[in-house]
Amino acid sequence: MEGWQRAFVLHGRPYSETSLLLDLFSENYGRIRVLAKGARGKRSSLKGALQPFTPLLVRWGGRGEVKTLRGAEPISLALPLSGLTLYCGLYVNELLSRVLEQETAFTDLFFDYLYCIQALAAVTGSPEPALRRFELAMLGHLGYGVDFLHCAGSGEEVADDMTYVYREEKGFIASLVIGNSTFTGRQLRALESRTFPDIDTLRAAKRFTRIALKPYLGGKPLKSQELFRQFVPKKRPDVLPDEE
């Protein structure tokens, strides 16, 4: 690649005595794995910069699956995530690391990610709406197209007080049976608009994104979910970005 790219560190781990192996999310190249040689050394200028949630300008080179980091400069200070919002940010990072193929451009998703992290940094209430909006945006960019506003069986517009069951690859079909995969028309309208005015629509959004993300994540649990369970009291499961 040529020139500098805007990017964020999604995940990093030590490699050899002084280097780091990093997953980056870049604006024009998507997820990239790079080796930052000497980044952990005592005299390295990169030591404090290559951290999650720090906006970066980066350059890399190489032809293999793992590139070599040629340069990195922080654009600004790290976005201030702490406590619950820090765990939310780690969850979003792990989602991207698990779901995105390497070296596949997701420029629009890059900005959705930036907006999500900024929203988490500025949140004064629940971080859940920001997480749900990001998950829905990511699913859309992955090609997971769902018509929330029409019944897949009849083609008619959903009615607020009707119940619809979700069928993968088909959509929402009117149903008299209520279960984990059923949603009211009002909840579906909230999913379409990505606005969640109350706890009912917010919980419905969480149920839907868990269903929709499952094929991408497989049976392997997210490490960030375990951190959430340790950090958040069991009496507040509604703030977790996962279902028990």
From TrEMBL:
It comes from Erwinia typographi. HAMAP family: RecO. NCBIfam families: reco. InterPro entries: ARFGAP/RecO, DNA_rep/recomb_RecO_N, NA-bd_OB-fold, RecO, RecO_C. Keywords: DNA damage, DNA recombination, DNA repair. Involved in DNA repair and RecF pathway recombination. GO terms for biological process: DNA recombination; double-strand break repair. Residues 4-76 form the DNA replication/recombination mediator RecO N-terminal domain. This is DNA repair protein RecO. GO terms for cellular component: bacterial nucleoid. Pfam families: RecO_C (PF02565), RecO_N (PF11967). Belongs to the RecO family.
